[in-house]
């Protein structure tokens, strides 16, 4: 019986896990310790995508451009320094770095989104080659697999949408048959359109890539290896007393990701749900610490599971007297937002006002602003528009929230010292959201965490 017909594990290593040679070595040990791990998905080494994004930006002058190219090259060479001397490897990386330089130069004349994606893909291309070399150094006969052969997307450069049917078909024909004999290392975050042009799935998209591949290969388990030992009750960088969660449901994890828990890309859970693939989140630095399992069914479903925060939120306040006892105002507003590919997050309404926050989930890899002048002008045709920014969305995530007496009182009591600009609950069983000033975000999360989680066990 073939190994992959028994069990197939897809392991994704994030940027912090493949930041440098020692980190890559930890990851290699994790891969090699499990014979069922046949496909490894890597992000660019930590910091590289940020440097590449800066390289795509119009304001970057020549001096800074050269510095950025150098910094990116330095990260790759510091890993190569630890690998056996190989002209072939050097030539591969150098050719990618040269390509990066040519692309960055061409952006000066033509700010093409297609070229930007090609440039952004260099980070993952380099890290996959280097991580494969680390595996080979450990005695594994592994190979690099170009994700663009299977990760078919549409043409929306910067925030491309995957074509699930094509990805399934391509994975089944191009990748699955070889997994039995060879371990492959592939790139997260990048894909290609029908014409083979490189696309990217949006910032943080490697988790999503790994989940799509797990779905298309009918994997048993998806492992997300990162720099913390699983999903915590809140970002451990924000609250020192945050605790790792042993087991969490798909619905709760999806809410956490959607509402800013950076540990998972918001789209990661959907493919796993579609194929009921269990997801493990663990630390590549401490693989022995227990980590978090994300499953359909979990043993306990507490009212309070976690607190997440999404910063840099924009609130649109739309005012129109036409709204009074009228129909169609919201339809018109949502149609304008849809034309600009913006989805709405929170919404509250009154007689003549609608307040809404914008969902940045599908944001462009190039870091462009969601709200543009064209959209605002369009909205101003039918209402007055007021924009507030410097806000943060804090989400309390758990179970049965709208049907549990006392949740609102507990949350509002806990936050009595803060101004709550907007609140929303009732639509989902799994969350209650509040909008607060960005400057208060950390204190709000810490206060909620202290009052809802600490002291409980
Ligand atoms: N609830 C949470 N549990 C764990 N980590 C969280 C949570 N919310 C936010 N994070 C942050 O997510 C980070 C991991 O995500 P990221 O930096 O994207 O990792 P990677 O480089 O592996 O993709 C952690 O270092 C942590 O600060
Ligand atoms: N390298 C890409 C994709 C990604 O998912 O990275 P990470 O796994 O480090 O969040 C980014 O920085 O957006």
Automatic annotation (TrEMBL):
Q: Name one GO biological process term.
A: threonine biosynthetic process
For the keyword Kinase, the answer is yes
Copy the pathway line from the protein's UniProt record: Amino-acid biosynthesis; L-methionine biosynthesis via de novo pathway; L-homoserine from L-aspartate: step 1/3; Amino-acid biosynthesis; L-lysine biosynthesis via DAP pathway; (S)-tetrahydrodipicolinate from L-aspartate: step 1/4; Amino-acid biosynthesis; L-threonine biosynthesis; L-threonine from L-aspartate: step 1/5
Task: Report the enzyme's class at the first EC level.
Answer: transferase
Which residues are noted in the entry as ATP-binding? 12-15, 226-227, 232, 237
Catalytic activity, reaction form: L-aspartate + ATP = 4-phospho-L-aspartate + ADP
> Which Gene Ontology cellular-component terms appear in the entry?
cytosol
Q: Where does the Aspartokinase ACT domain lie?
A: 394-451
User: GO molecular function terms here?
Assistant: aspartate kinase activity; ATP binding
Taxonomically, the superkingdom here is Bacteria
Keywords, A to Z? Amino-acid biosynthesis, ATP-binding, Kinase, Nucleotide-binding, Transferase
Q: InterPro entries given for it?
A: AceGlu_kinase-like_sf, ACT-like_dom_sf, ACT_Aspartokinase, Asp/Glu/Uridylate_kinase, Asp_kin_monofn, Asp_kinase, AsparK_Bifunc_asparK/hSer_DH, Aspartate_kinase_CS
Return the SUPFAM superfamilies for the record.
Answer: ACT-like (SSF55021), Carbamate kinase-like (SSF53633)
Give every Aspartate/glutamate/uridylate kinase domain span.
7-282
* Protein family per UniProt: Belongs to the aspartokinase family.
Matching NCBIfam families, A to Z? asp_kin_monofn, asp_kinases, PRK09084.1
Please report the name of this protein according to its UniProt entry: Aspartokinase
* Organism per entry: Parashewanella spongiae
């Amino acid at each position: 019986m073939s190994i992959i017909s028994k069990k197939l594990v897809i392991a994704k290593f994030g940027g912090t896990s493949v930041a440098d040679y020692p980190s890559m070595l930890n990851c290699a040990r994790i891969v090699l310790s499990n014979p069922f791990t046949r496909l490894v998905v890597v992000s660019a080494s930590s910091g590289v995508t940020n440097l590449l994004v800066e390289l795509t930006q119009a304001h970057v002058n020549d001096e800074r451009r050269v510095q950025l190219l150098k910094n990116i090259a330095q990260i790759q060479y510091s890993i190569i320094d630890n690998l056996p001397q190989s002209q072939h490897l050097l030539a591969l990386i150098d050719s990618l770095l040269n390509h990066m330089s040519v692309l960055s130069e061409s952006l000066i004349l033509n700010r093409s989104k297609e070229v930007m994606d090609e440039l952004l893909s260099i980070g993952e291309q380099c890290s996959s080659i280097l991580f494969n070399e680390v595996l080979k150094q450990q005695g594994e006969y592994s190979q690099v697999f170009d994700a663009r052969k299977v990760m078919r997307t549409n043409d929306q450069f910067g925030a491309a949408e995957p074509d699930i049917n094509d990805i399934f078909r391509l994975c089944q024909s191009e990748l699955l048959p070889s997994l039995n004999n060879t371990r492959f290392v592939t790139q997260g975050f990048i894909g290609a359109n029908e014409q083979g042009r490189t696309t990217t799935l949006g910032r943080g998209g490697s988790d999503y890539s790994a989940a799509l591949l797990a779905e298309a290969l009918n994997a048993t388990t998806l492992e997300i290896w990162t720099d913390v030992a699983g999903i915590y009750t809140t970002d451990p960088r924000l609250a020192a007393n945050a605790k790792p969660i042993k087991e969490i449901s798909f619905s709760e994890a999806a809410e956490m990701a959607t509402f800013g828990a950076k540990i998972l890309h918001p789209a990661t859970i959907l493919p796993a749900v579609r194929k009921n693939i269990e997801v493990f989140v663990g630390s590549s630095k401490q693989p022995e610490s227990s980590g978090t399992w994300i499953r359909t069914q979990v043993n306990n479903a507490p009212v309070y599971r976690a607190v997440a925060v999404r910063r840099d939120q924009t609130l649109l306040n739309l005012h129109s007297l036409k709204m009074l006892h009228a129909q169609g105002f919201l339809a018109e507003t949502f149609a304008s937002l849809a034309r600009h590919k913006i989805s709405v997050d929170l919404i509250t309404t009154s007689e003549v006002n609608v307040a809404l926050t914008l969902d940045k989930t599908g944001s462009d890899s190039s870091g462009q602003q969601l709200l543009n002048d064209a959209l605002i002008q369009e909205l101003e045709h039918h209402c007055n528009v007021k924009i507030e920014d410097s806000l943060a969305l804090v989400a309390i995530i758990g179970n049965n929230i709208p049907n549990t007496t006392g949740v609102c009182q507990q949350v509002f009591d806990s936050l009595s010292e803060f101004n709550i600009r907007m609140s929303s609950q009732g639509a989902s069983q799994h969350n209650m959201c509040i909008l607060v000033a960005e400057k208060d975000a950390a204190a709000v999360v810490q206060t909620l965490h202290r009052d809802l989680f600490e002291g409980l066990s």
